[in-house]
Design a protein that fits this description.
Blueprint (H helix, E strand, L loop, with lengths): L10 E4 L7 H6 L4 E5 L4 H4 L2 H8 L4 E5 L8 H15 L3 E6 L1 H13 L7 H4 L11 E5 L11 E6 L4 E6 L7 E4 L9 H19 L6 H23 L4 H12 L16 H13 L3 H16 L5 H12 L7 H18 L16 H11 L11 H10 L2
Parallel strand pairs: 1-8, 2-3, 2-4, 4-5, 5-8
Antiparallel strand pairs: 6-7
Helix pairs in contact: 4-5, 7-8, 7-11, 8-9, 8-12, 10-11, 10-14, 11-13, 11-15, 12-13, 14-15
Bound molecules: 5,6-dihydroxy-NADP and zinc ion.
Amino acid sequence: MQNFDYHTPTRLIFGKDVIKELPEVMNQFGKKILLTYGGGSIKKIGLYDKVKELLKDFDIYELSGIEPNPKYDPSVLDGVKMCKENDVDVILAVGGGSVLDCSKAIAAGAKYDGDPWDLISYQVKAKDALPIVDIITLAATGSEYDAGGVISRTETNDKIGYVDPLLFPAVSFLDPTYTFTVSKKQTAAGCADAMNHIMEQYFCEDSTLLNDGFMEAGLKSLMINAKKCLDNPEDYNARAEMMLTCTYGCNGIYSLGNSQSGWPLHGMEHALSAYYDITHGEGLAIITPRWMKHVLSEKTVDRFVKYGVNVFNIDPSLDKMDIANKAIEETYKFFESINIPMHLREVGIDESRIDEMAHHVAINEGLDEAWVPLQEKDISDIFRASL
Ligand code: NZQ
Ligand code: ZN
């Protein structure tokens, strides 16, 4: 087991109607709030009105229209400007991972005198950030419990995971009933994203019985509960279990003491959604089985056998390579069964920019140090196999 230093300072407040604690929580941080949200889903579900009513004694400034795959310009820049102009005390992010991620970049930018891109691109280390409180409305990213935000910059095709312990939300409200209205497409994509967060930690050199069991249970929970949520969007227990399983995704708790895998699937997918603005979870689901096939070898087969036997109940007495291949097939079939388009062409990506994207990934993502190292040619092969 590897050494680690682990601290998650985020307070999770979980369950039906927990939002009633919002005024008391916000009071701890000050009176001036930047309320951030996306394209309007929070208005449709009545959450916007509820938040405004609960916070009627606060000064609220609003940044709306944060895009899926949130953009540096205009969203981050506008938010930073509003915080500085109004001397905001705290950010309240209400929405999915994109709203949270954007709010994290704003929180750091608001306390920095220069161009916020200096921070996101790691040229300068942030010294401070505004506190963030969030109400997450979509189970997927785990942004509500981690220190990262992913920001896109259109003109350079960059999509950067900006991580800094200063960006942990101070408080996250998780009420599964707010996820009842999440569309089938986003429910499935959220499931695929969270499964990938686990797989990125599972497929590594050095793990433990404890972590493997935790992650295998997480994968099974996501697959079973996603189907329940798709069949009955208002199944509280299924939405609740999905929400919590997703929340653990990226904050390291699934793999304390494991060796690092380098998160190759995310490294590759971020290029797909940077170049083509596709849904992150769908991009991941498409490339996952192709990556698995690409990295399967005598050296890696045992990990796939464990995955196949423990997650998909494949007969352990079969030949090792057969188990591994069947596990990859089951992974593909599961994503297909929740109606994820399983070819890049179906989400509008063709051959034309594959080499350019592979080059971008090879230069920026450090995947030559992944669990199974990937060079530019490996990356373009995986993209081509996904077409
Ligand atoms: O914009 P609104 O109107 O709010 O609609 C959103 C959006 O269209 C909608 N939605 C959210 N909650 C809803 C709802 N619709 C109905 N009912 C609700 N309760 O869903 C759409 C997608 O929202 P988005 O926030 O983009 O989805 P998600 O939570 O999957 O976030 C995706 C972003 O997170 C990044 C991804 O790269 C992508 O940019 N990631 C962030 C991570 C992190 N911070 O740790 C890790 C992930 O690996 C991921 O990279
Ligand atoms: Zn992800």
